[in-house]
């Protein structure tokens, strides 16, 4: 029986591409695996899959009694709902260590880099496995996405070097141009239901027993949201009531201006203001903030500690 490789709920490009790339590697070294996903691909992810000729991994929500590798997270809140009834064989991630546990020893590749696919590239090197041209192209795109084409503070020299090598394998001469093409697809938000936008890249976090939801929309021109902000604010308020979070935050990130407008709906707005040392009125501009992982989650965790 094959094991599965799966990323987090509401999967982004790193999660879905990582599942495909890691599953291929495991199969090459004699471990039978299948890639899977916990949600629908975003427009950006579908663009990547289409460009390199891949179907999305199977949609599989239940893993009780199964064995699996976890990609791009190590948090219970982001894992399959029945993860406690599954056997975790390994974790490949680039975030802080979360609260997933295992009854048996497991393989862990967790590195402080900008993308899980950078870690997976290191795994290919370790096992001396050649990366197929189309998988290399997808991995390159995932790294460009997660590092915001190297603008994110999470980006490292390892991410940049991996993109250069993967671009060479994939035969892509101008990878930054392809990155901008991806972000243009990501910026296509008009005529999309508000809930779909809010949930496009959304994660729930357990911060010392407090449930916080944080979404992010990355675009090349924040003006696209000018007429949509009231509807987005209304939907995050509705989402918070539906799911019982203490707070729901939505980052509207302008990758060209290199900053984010933060929309907030909260039980206690003052504590959110404390985290960012700014007065909000339910929204605030955060200069230089591009990374949820490095610039938004840590200050929130500090005030909820």
UniProtKB/TrEMBL annotation:
EC supergroup of this enzyme: hydrolase
UniProt-listed InterPro entries: DDH_dom, DHH_sf, DHHA2, DHHA2_dom_sf
EC number from the UniProt entry: 3.6.1.1
GO MF annotation terms: inorganic diphosphate phosphatase activity; metal ion binding
Gene3D superfamilies, sorted: DHHA2 domain (3.10.310.20), inorganic pyrophosphatase (n-terminal core) (3.90.1640.10)
Pfam family name, one: DHHA2
Cofactor(s) listed in the protein's UniProt record: Mn(2+)
Any GO CC annotation of this UniProt entry: cytoplasm
Domain DHHA2: 179-304
Keywords, ordered alphabetically: Hydrolase, Manganese, Metal-binding
Keyword Lipid metabolism belongs to the record: no
Organism domain of life: Bacteria
Keyword Nucleus: no
Organism: Pseudoalteromonas denitrificans DSM 6059
Catalytic activity: diphosphate + H2O = 2 phosphate + H(+)
Protein's name according to its UniProt entry: inorganic diphosphatase
PANTHER family xref list: BNIP - RELATED (PTHR12112), MANGANESE-DEPENDENT INORGANIC PYROPHOSPHATASE-RELATED (PTHR12112:SF22)
SUPFAM superfamilies: DHH phosphoesterases
């Amino acid at each position: 029986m094959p094991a599965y490789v799966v990323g987090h709920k509401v999967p982004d490009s790193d999660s879905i591409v990582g599942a495909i790339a890691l599953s291929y590697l495991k199969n090459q070294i004699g471990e039978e695996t299948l890639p899977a996903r916990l949600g629908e691909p975003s427009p950006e992810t579908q663009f990547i899959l289409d460009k390199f000729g891949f179907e999305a991994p199977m949609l599989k929500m239940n893993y009780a009694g199964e064995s699996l590798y976890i990609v791009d997270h190590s948090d219970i809140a982001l894992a399959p709902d029945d993860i406690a009834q599954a056997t975790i064989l390994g974790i490949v991630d680039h975030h802080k260590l979360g609260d997933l546990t295992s009854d048996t020893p497991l393989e862990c590749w967790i590195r402080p880099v900008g993308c899980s696919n950078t870690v997976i590239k290191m795994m290919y090197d370790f096992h001396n496995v050649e990366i197929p041209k189309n998988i290399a192209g997808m991995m390159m795109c995932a790294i460009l996405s997660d590092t915001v084409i190297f603008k994110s503070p999470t980006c490292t020299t390892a991410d940049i070097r991996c993109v250069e090598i993967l671009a060479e394998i994939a035969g892509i001469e101008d990878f930054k141009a392809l990155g901008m093409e991806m972000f243009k697809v990501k910026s296509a938000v008009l005529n999309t239901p508000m809930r779909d936008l809010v949930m496009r890249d959304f994660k729930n976090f357990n911060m010392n027993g407090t449930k916080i939801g944080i979404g992010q929309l990355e675009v090349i021109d924040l003006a696209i949201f000018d007429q949509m902000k009231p509807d987005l604010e209304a939907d995050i308020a509705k989402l918070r009531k539906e799911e019982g979070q203490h707070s729901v935050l939505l980052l509207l990130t302008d990758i060209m201006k290199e900053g984010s407008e933060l929309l907030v709906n909260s039980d206690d707005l003052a504590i959110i203001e404390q985290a960012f040392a700014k007065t909000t009125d339910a929204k605030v501009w955060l200069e230089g903030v591009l990374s949820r992982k490095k610039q938004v989650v840590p200050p929130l965790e500090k005030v909820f500690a």
